[in-house]
Write a structure and sequence with these properties.
The strands form two sheets. Strands 1, 2, 3, 4, 5, 6 and 12 form a seven-stranded mixed beta sheet that branches. A five-stranded mixed beta sheet has the order 9-8-7-10-11. It is 36% helix and 21% strand. The longest helix is centred in the N-terminal third of the chain and has 25 residues. With 399 residues, the protein is an alpha/beta fold. The protein contains 13 helices and twelve strands. Helix 12 links the parallel strand 10 and strand 11. It is globular, with a radius of gyration of 21 Å. It catalyses: 1,6-anhydro-N-acetyl-beta-muramate + ATP + H2O = N-acetyl-D-muramate 6-phosphate + ADP + H(+).
Length: 399
């Protein structure tokens, strides 16, 4: 039997690697599973997305994760147990996807697992000067490796924090390698639970590249729907939001947070933009009697305005800005119409125009991070605070 380290070494030298990337976001609608082929590394990386699916979670699994998600006080035993359970669930879904796609597990070289974020605590949120940035993703990589038989890289965000970052967003690394193009200034906007974008200059100068969270994407809308509309997990086609009217008093109160004025890059999460945040804004603005539809309309405008104002801060650097959308929020017609209305100078496209399925993009980006680590390379972004030039991901061997 080939030694496990020798096996890892031989796979790292392959001209073409098959890597499965995983992403499970704050919306928890399911596990994004993307199978891609990779050749080369760094600026020479070539990627082809071969297969993609979103594997649905069961209602019970969602309930278990939500019981420990983005809360300061939780059942510690449940955190411990769900670290294993998330990994076992993900491994099962991976095995099913590989079988469905007609592959054998032995043909897959690596798995890149983001895990499930249950708490994100940058200093800007926890405000404790004597403590560092922190983040926690569960779904242990060893369990995935053992139960799939595939070398697994996981826990990417810890290296980012260890090297001086905040653990998010990590899209800057993959966006730069996959999507940069000479003579076209690009904004790669991903609207997940939290919205973030990467700025890619057309002169390909890595020192100018940055990625930042901009505020809530879907998270507050999803949380509100799940609480007030039984059986729904999100506002499909913005049906609820479009039936309501925006309330300016509530909207302006929602926008009153220091996060929106902070310099780039910055990061946030549902730990800040929670239903408690909404409840406080409603109490302060005396809008507790709004209809649920009006609240949803206002939340959609809130997400849109946070995105718009952040992008406008970057537009002075761009000659012909082209914005490429990805993430679940791009399917929200009201949100998209607001972005296009308020950013008339921007050309809107999706990553489909760049041959990457927009729903698969985040999973593919983590597969790319794994490829960089396996190849032993690091993406150099200069000596800038918040964007460390490091390899990320812990390696778990299957035996």
């Amino acid at each position: 039997m080939m030694n496990q380290i020798e096996n890892l070494y031989q796979k790292s030298k392959k001209e073409e690697k098959l890597i499965i990337g995983l992403m499970s976001g704050t919306s928890m609608d399911g596990l994004d599973i993307a199978l891609s082929s990779f050749s080369g590394s760094g600026a020479e990386t070539k990627i082809k997305l071969l297969k993609f699916k979103t594997a649905d979670y069961t209602d019970n699994f969602r309930k278990q994760v939500k019981s420990i998600f983005s809360k300061r006080e939780v059942d510690l035993e449940m955190v411990c147990l769900m670290n294993e359970q998330v990994a076992l669930t993900h491994a099962k879904l991976i095995n099913e996807a590989i079988l469905e796609w007609g592959y054998k597990n032995e043909a897959i070289d690596f798995i890149a697992s983001h895990g499930q974020t249950i708490y994100h605590a940058p200093k800007s949120l926890h405000q404790r000067a004597d403590l560092p940035n922190g983040t926690l993703q569960i779904g242990d990589g060893d369990h995935i490796a053992v139960n799939t038989g595939i070398i697994t890289l996981s826990d990417f965000r810890q290296k980012h924090i260890a090297a001086g970052g905040e653990g998010a967003p990590l899209a800057v690394y993959g966006d730069y390698l996959i999507f940069s193009k000479k003579d076209e200034d690009r904004i790669m906007l991903n609207i997940g639970g939290i919205a973030n974008y990467t700025y890619l200059p057309g002169d390909l100068d890595a020192s100018k590249v940055f990625s930042t969270d901009v505020g809530p994407g879907n998270t507050l809308m999803d949380q509100y729907v799940q609480k007030h509309f039984e059986g729904l997990y999100y506002d499909k086609d913005a049906a609820i939001s479009q039936s309501g009217k925006v309330n300016e008093a509530l909207l302006q109160q929602l926008l009153q947070n220091d996060f929106f004025e902070a310099d780039f890059p910055k990061t946030t999460g549902p730990e800040l933009f929670s239903l408690d945040y909404l409840n406080h804004a409603q109490s302060t603005s005396d809008t507790n009697d709004l209809s649920k539809e009006d609240v949803m309309a206002t939340l959609c405008h809130f997400s849109a305005q946070g995105i718009v104002e952040s992008i406008q801060r970057a537009l002075d650097q761009l000659s012909k800005p082209v914005l490429y959308l990805s993430g679940g929020g791009m399917h929200n017609p009201l949100l998209l119409s607001l972005l296009k209305r308020d950013l008339p100078e921007v050309i809107f496209k999706t990553t489909s125009d760049l041959e990457i399925n927009p729903d698969a993009k985040e999973a593919v980006l983590f597969a790319l991070l794994a490829n960089e680590t396996i190849c032993g390379s690091q993406i150099y972004f200069g000596e800038r605070e918040g964007v460390p030039s490091v390899c990320m991901g812990k390696i778990s061997l299957p035996k």
